[in-house]
Amino acid sequence: MTHTLNADLHCHSVVSDGTLTPEQLAARAKANGVQLWALTDHDEIGGQHRAMAAARAEGMAYLTGVEISVTFADTTVHIVGLGFDPDDAALAQGLAATRGGRGERAREMADQLAQVGIHGAYEGALKFVGNPELISRTHFARFLVETGVCKDTPEVFRRFLTEGKPGFVPHRWATLGNAVRWITQAGGMAVIAHPARYKFGATVEYALFSEFKQHGGRGVEVVTGSHTPAEYPVYADMALEFGLAASRGSDFHSPDESHTDLGTLPPLPGQLTPVWSLLADRIVTP
Ligand code: AMP
Ligand code: MN
Ligand code: MN
Ligand code: MN
Questions:
Q1: To test ligand 1's pocket by mutation, which of 20, 78, 136, 151 has the most ligand atoms within 8 angstroms of CB?
Q2: CATH of the domain at 155
Q3: What pTM was computed for the model?
Q4: Is 16 close to ligand 1, i.e. is its CB under 6 Å away?
Q5: Which end of the chain has a smaller Cβ tally under 10 Å, C or N?
Q6: If we measure between CA atoms, which residue out of 223, 229, 160, 165 comes closest to residue 191?
């Protein structure tokens, strides 16, 4: 399969912090020309069978997907899994453990916001939650926009919910090794999500890529809605240097919030190996 295949291997539904159902996402992906799709909800694979069925109904090829929250060097790093068995018990168990602390964290986030005069944030965020096990910062962001505290999501993450700002509660997610192993042992491929987002210096970034490879990771997102076009060649070089396959995905969350729609990114740079060329036997065809 070629570089020009319109693959979108990163997006979110109401099963995590997106606003569309898996079925609505499948229809939107199809309408936008996506030929190979993956739903990658945060720490949750509860939407995989729905997404697979919806892709089939739309006549679109599908790869199973997930985006696992990991703590690496005291920073939250996201690892995407693609092409795993959606019924793998160890993966499901690892993800359930990773989701575990979210409820308590959300209450602490709300307590912090109350201290700066923003009341009712827990209940307010909960109104936007589709999956009670997956209350996230995105749901708080929607509450802060709805109540007029901020005009949009980017403003929320500039003023709140991030390190040093009200509403930020540090959290210990999965380890890098566990996340990669859960995915790999379920037959899938682990991919570093949007590496430019972490703002690591060269040394820590090198450590992330090296350790990821040592644990069995095989891919990195190069063309993603979470990178600027200037960052594509930087991570294309990293993919080549570390011998990783390259992935492409919008990271679409919502028609009202996401600047990159499903299926609208440029193709991968030509010299890279697309992740889908190594996952041919894992692709579910309609
Ligand atoms: P959580 O998993 O609860 O820490 O929430 C992380 C989610 O918050 C990410 O997956 C994004 O959807 C959202 N998010 C984090 N930082 C930003 C940002 N700067 N702008 C917009 N959304 C963000
Ligand atoms: Mn998200
Ligand atoms: Mn992410
Ligand atoms: Mn994402």
A1: 136
A2: 1.10.150.650
A3: 0.98
A4: no
A5: C
A6: 223
